[in-house]
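ok posting inputs for the erythose-4-phosphate job
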Amino acid sequence: MKFFIDTANLDQIREAHDLGILDGVTTNPSLMAKEGVKGKDAIMRHYLTICEMVDGPVSAEVFSTTFNEIVAEGEELASIHENIVVKVPMIKDGIKAIKWFTDNNIKTNCTLVFSAGQAILAAKAGATFVSPFLGRIDDSNWDGMQLIEDIVEIYNAQGYLTEVLAASIRTPLHIVKCAAAGADVCTSPLSSILGLLKHPLTDLGLQQFLKDAATMK
Ligand code: E4P
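and the output
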């Protein structure tokens, strides 16, 4: 399973990249706004900086919701860097635009996916990635992990090439369960990635080893 980081924060991207396990980055308009990125030029520059930091897919989301505008905006985003993946919302014009991007060799990430039916449409349109929002489903008292499992099963049964990119991750355990479910990619906040490191027995064990090592100096 590939590890993407779900942020537009350059320090966090650098920290995850320095670990040596980062395969890509996903952003969305809320994450970009949080970094105070304002205006088209600044947005384009920010995506370019991310692409220069991480050698892997970088999802940049369109702000448009109509076919012609999504295509124009997506083409412009894709021209920033070869690793840009145009992130398109799961709406009627979005699906139409994903098909257009597919036919024109532009990579896409179909976002805001909350059902297996939506994931089937994204795959039929040829999306490179589909992003089911696990955490937001859990937040609304439904079973987000079940959706990941269903999409993986359907894609395997149908031989769809779209990669399942589990999104809206809240905890390290989400990452572990996504790996077990066969997700192709998991995009997580830095805190969940770093959470995978933690175990109290590791800390206790290391403490003892260092204590014993000190007696041998
Ligand atoms: C998907 O790519 C989104 O950027 C993201 O995972 C949404 O996560 P959230 O539900 O924590 O906002």
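notes: The beta strands are 2-6, 24-26, 58-61, 84-89, 108-113, 129-132, 163-166, 185-188. Residues 144-158 form the longest helix (15 residues).
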